[in-house]
Amino acid sequence: MSSPYPHIEPYVRPEPTKEDLEYAPLAALDVSKVPDWSKPEGKEELVNDLRRAIEEVGFFYVVGHGIKDLDVRRQLALADAFFKQPVETKLQHPCEFEVGKYFGYRYPKEFYGAEGRLQSRTEMLNAAKDTPVLEDEYIEWDLLKPHRAEIKDFQQQVHSKILTPVLKLFALLLELPETYFSDPHAFDQATEDHLRYMLYSPYSAEEYAQIGGQLSRGHTDFGLLTILFPQIINGLQVQTAPGEYKWVKYIPDHVVVNTAEVLTYLTGGFVKSTVHRVIRPPNDQAKSNRLGLLYFSRVANDYDVAIAPSPLLKRLGLYKVDPNPPKGLEWGRERVKHSHLKKIIEIEKPYEAFKFRDGQYEVKLDYDSPAVESTPIKPSTAIAA
């Protein structure tokens, strides 16, 4: 039987902003400096680059990865086609937040404000890794079924060309065996990793004012690392100092990577999980849909969430032994339930700390995310890409 979806329209990127924005000074890691990971060439230099990157912001670009822009645009085309479907079609496979599962479609059911007067317009599709050990978690959507092979190929590219090299660099930075993190988190291992298609639909000026201009409040991510492919509609900001946010610049072929909460925990706080948010795009992009392509690396299901026995961490006094650490799946599922079972987002109310095992484990979520009015936008001429 022929597919009812034989053709996906190519994705055409909108124009970049011409606003004069204050950008965060993100370092760039060129992973092509290590042409062969079986040899030492380039590794020391790249580890030093990573050290400087995480000392400055905790967000950094990865370049030289070898993923073609044609493949990125193809995934954006699939994402665009998916979100254009009727809501009832997308809701055939919703995320099961009540059990801590993130795979599936997240309908924008949250409401901003104590009175719940404005519905969120953020949608996402989270696709599990297409690998035999996760066969029961993989969801086949009618629209995407004919494209399963290319989606899997893209997931594998992200994993092998970006995630694995970066995990190896973190291991080397911590003076651990190179594959300490990458082997337990290989593509064929059971993890809650997912490829995400994400859509922020615009609000009116009055609605933006109601939510303080914030599409996503200041937060940190749950897992090990987050990978964001070049996002031409601005909106992402990183916290560079308490209460101070700067924009993340769109640069073609520059993939944004940020460190997340579990990596912070595994390193005894040595690697910080940087607070970031998504706000109203610049004036010349404010009426555009903001379509995103991301990959989230989660700690392996059977991995002990405990501080790594790193010589560096031991010298710094950050290492301690946990006799009964939680497994990655337990940590991840509890974290998802804590964050996503709420139906009301009160933009002025502080986050509640994430606690589980009767408070034995706690992640404090005392983020400072002021309204956008404190970060003015200055019209100007076109900026260089």
UniProtKB/TrEMBL annotation:
Residue span, Non-haem dioxygenase N-terminal domain: 30-132
UniProt xrefs under Gene3D superfamilies:
B-lactam Antibiotic, Isopenicillin N Synthase, Chain
Q: SUPFAM superfamilies, from UniProt? A: Clavaminate synthase-like
Coiled-coil ranges per UniProt:
none
Lineage top rank: taxon = Eukaryota
Alphabetized Pfam families for the sequence: 2OG-FeII_Oxy (PF03171), DIOX_N (PF14226)
Looking at the record, the residues that make up the Isopenicillin N synthase-like Fe(2+) 2OG dioxygenase domain are 217-286
| Protein name, as recorded | Clavaminate synthase-like protein
Species of provenance: Leucosporidium creatinivorum
